[in-house]
Amino acid sequence: MTTQASAFSLAVPSVPTPFRRHRNPLVVRARVEPSDKSVEIMRKFSEQYARKSGTYFCVDKGVTSVVIKGLADHKDSLGAPLCPCRHYDDKAAEAAQGFWNCPCVPMRERKECHCMLFLTPDNDFAGDEQTITLDEIKEATASM
Amino acid sequence: MAVSVSTSTAISSLSSERYTRLPPSASSSVKQPSLQFPSRTRLLRISTPRAPTSPERQFLPRVQAKKQTFNSFDDLLANSEKPVLVDFYATWCGPCQFMVPILNEVSTRLKDKIQVVKIDTEKYPSIADKYRIAALPTFIMFKDGEPYDRFEGALTADQLIERIEAGLKVEQ
């Protein structure tokens, strides 16, 4: 996986100036990122649902962050937070069908979350937190 | 968490630069609809470890990648002298990202025994479909182009090595 960013300057000259690379650097992320709004929605949902289900976030909050962004990304593109840890033949059909929309049926029925987002206390990877801040998410996924 | 590992330094992967459909005759002898592949697929193989050079990769010696060109995933599998561990992943899959540094460690520790390859299932859905990938991450061990072991989910480096070596023993 690589981060892709390109920098170029914005120049609005009254006098023609040569293209200056570093004058007003504008960093553009080539990778598609989920919208801030969706990330916030899924973050709140995750905290709420962890409390409600008595589950905890992973000791490595990076995992939690990536999954929350994955859910937000699907919410943006499909209208529903389809599980980001699966491969699908037809994502739109799956989102409409609903089995894998978070919280998915295996989670609702058996508290099974293979995304490692909601972990039962006995799970080796479970931490002791049911909260995660937007800053934590941004930091953990900054280098993606 | 280290998610910024570039594929060029540690692990082989198919990079999707230019995306062109291979003519049916160019693909391997498998009788299936032709797989879509970039016209030039660059795959990077591990050869020897080097000293760390960048701050975010402090955990392991940086591995020098050897570039090779393959025409398809099938080619890669067929031409590999060693068994191949294939990691099917997706960008926003938490456990898949969790496995990135672990796979680096495992491929360094087992560098003479296996080759590690990562497939982005969103870039190569046809490969993922061919092997009926559902949950991510899914790991499949291949020998001589054929899968012989398959497991899902994140695991620690020791658990992964244990599983790989158990599979290698059986294969011999």
From TrEMBL, chain A:
GO molecular function per UniProt: 4 iron, 4 sulfur cluster binding; ferredoxin-thioredoxin reductase activity; metal ion binding; oxidoreductase activity, acting on iron-sulfur proteins as donors
UniProt KW Iron-sulfur keyword: yes
InterPro entries registered for this protein in UniProt: FTR_bsu (IPR004209), FTR_bsu_sf (IPR036644)
Enzyme Commission designation: 1.8.7.2
Chemical reaction(s) catalysed: [thioredoxin]-disulfide + 2 reduced [2Fe-2S]-[ferredoxin] + 2 H(+) = [thioredoxin]-dithiol + 2 oxidized [2Fe-2S]-[ferredoxin]
CC cofactor: [4Fe-4S] cluster
Signal peptide positions on this chain: none
Top-level class of the enzyme under EC nomenclature: oxidoreductase
Keywords: 4Fe-4S, Disulfide bond, Iron, Iron-sulfur, Metal-binding, Oxidoreductase, Redox-active center
Keyword Signal: no
Pfam families hit by this protein: FeThRed_B
Superkingdom per UniProt: Eukaryota
Described purpose of this protein according to its UniProt entry: Catalytic subunit of the ferredoxin-thioredoxin reductase (FTR), which catalyzes the two-electron reduction of thioredoxins by the electrons provided by reduced ferredoxin.
Subunit description: Heterodimer of subunit A (variable subunit) and subunit B (catalytic subunit). Heterodimeric FTR forms a complex with ferredoxin and thioredoxin.
UniProt record similarity statement: Belongs to the ferredoxin thioredoxin reductase beta subunit family.
Name under which the protein is recorded: Ferredoxin-thioredoxin reductase catalytic chain, chloroplastic
Organism: Sphenostylis stenocarpa
Lineage, uppermost ranks: Eukaryota, Viridiplantae, Streptophyta, Embryophyta, Tracheophyta
Automatic annotation (TrEMBL), chain B:
SUPFAM superfamilies: Thioredoxin-like
Annotated region described as Disordered, given as residue ranges: 1-35
Limits of the Thioredoxin domain: 48-169
Pfam families according to UniProt: Thioredoxin
Polar residues bias (residue ranges): 25-35
GO molecular function (one): enzyme activator activity
Transmembrane feature ranges: none
Compositionally skewed regions (Low complexity) per UniProt: 1-16
Organism: Sphenostylis stenocarpa
Protein name from the UniProt record: Thioredoxin domain-containing protein
A cellular component annotation (GO) from this entry: cytoplasm
Organism lineage: Eukaryota, Viridiplantae, Streptophyta, Embryophyta, Tracheophyta
PROSITE patterns: THIOREDOXIN_1, THIOREDOXIN_2
InterPro entries: Thioredoxin, Thioredoxin-like_sf, Thioredoxin_CS, Thioredoxin_domain
CDD domains in the record: TRX_family
